[in-house]
UniProtKB/TrEMBL annotation:
It comes from Caerostris extrusa. Signal peptide: none annotated. Belongs to the SURF1 family. The keyword Transmembrane helix applies. Keywords: Membrane, Mitochondrion, Mitochondrion inner membrane, Transmembrane, Transmembrane helix. Pfam families: SURF1. PANTHER family: SURFEIT LOCUS PROTEIN, SURFEIT LOCUS PROTEIN 1. This is SURF1-like protein. Probably involved in the biogenesis of the COX complex. The keyword Transcription does not apply. InterPro entries: Surf1/Shy1 (IPR002994), Surf1/Surf4 (IPR045214). It is a multi-pass membrane protein. The chain crosses the membrane at residues 23-43, 74-92, 283-301.
Amino acid sequence: MRNRSSSMLAGTVLPVLLEAKNVLLNLWIYGFIAVFKTIRIMAYKQMSMSMRKLYLVFSRNVSSKLKTRQDIGFSGYALLSIPITTFCLGTWQVKRRAWKLNLIEEIKNKRKAAPIELPENLEELASMDYQRVHVQGKFDHSKELYIGLRQLITENDEGGGLFSSRPQSGYLIITPFHVTDKNITILVNRGWVPKNKIDPDKRAEGQISEEINLVGTIRLPEKRPQFCPKSKPNSRTFYFRDVPKMSELAGAAPIFIDAETNSTVPDGPIGGQTRITFRNEHFSYIVTWYSLCAATSYMWYRKYFYRLKTL
C-alpha cells in the first residue's frame, strides 16, 4: 500500500518539477535577451550622442577656422610678408656664404699654384684676379706712381688684412714694367716704402736698371672705397688702385701686378704687399634673418590662429 502511494506521488510531482524547470529556463533566456537588447539600445544611444558631439565640435572648428580666415583680411596677409621675406633673405645668405667660401678656396689655390705667362688676350685678365704670373723685362723708374698712405704688410700678417702689425705708414711704389717677350708695358706694385723714402733719390740703390725675371699676382682695378677722396687730376699719388687712370698716366696697358716678397732688393721697396681681405659674415646674417623669420611667424600665428588651439 505504501509503495503504491509513493509511486503515485512520484508520478504526480516529477512532471511538475520538469515543467517548472522549463519555465525557469525560458525565463532566464528571455531575461538574457531583454538585458542584451537593453545594453545594445543604451550603447547605440551613447554612440549616437558621441557622434553628435564630435560632429558639433568639428562643425565648430570648421566655422571658427573659416571665421578666423575671414578675420585675417588684407592687413593680416600683408604682415605675413614679413616672415616670408626674412626667410628668403636667410636662404639667400646661405647661398652667398657658399659662394664666398668657394671664392676664398679658389683664391687660396691660385696663390699656391705655379706662376703662368701673361695671356695674349687681355680680356682673359678679368677672370685672373689673384693669379700668379711670370714676366721678364725692365722697369721704367722715370714714371713711378704712388698709392698711399698704406701700412706695411709682412709675412706674419695673416691674409694681409686692413691693419698691419706695424703701425708705420708709407706708400706703395707703382712702376711701369716693359715686358720684353710681349712687347707691352704693364704696372708693377714693387712694394712698400716709408714716407721718408718716397723720393726715388733716397733709395737709388734699389732702382733696378737691368732686365729681370719677376713673379707677381694679378690685381684687377679697385673701386673707390667709401669716404675715400678722389685722386687729384695729373697727380702721381693715388688713394686706391685706380688702374685705368694710372695706366693712362704712365703710358702702360691696364695690367696691374703685385710683386712678391722675393722681389725685394736692398734699399728698395718691400714686396709682397698683396692685400687679401674678404668679409665673411654671412653666417651671422643667416642666424639673424632666420631668427626674425621664426619670431615674426610665431607672432603672426599667435595673432590670427591661436584661437583654434584652444577649441
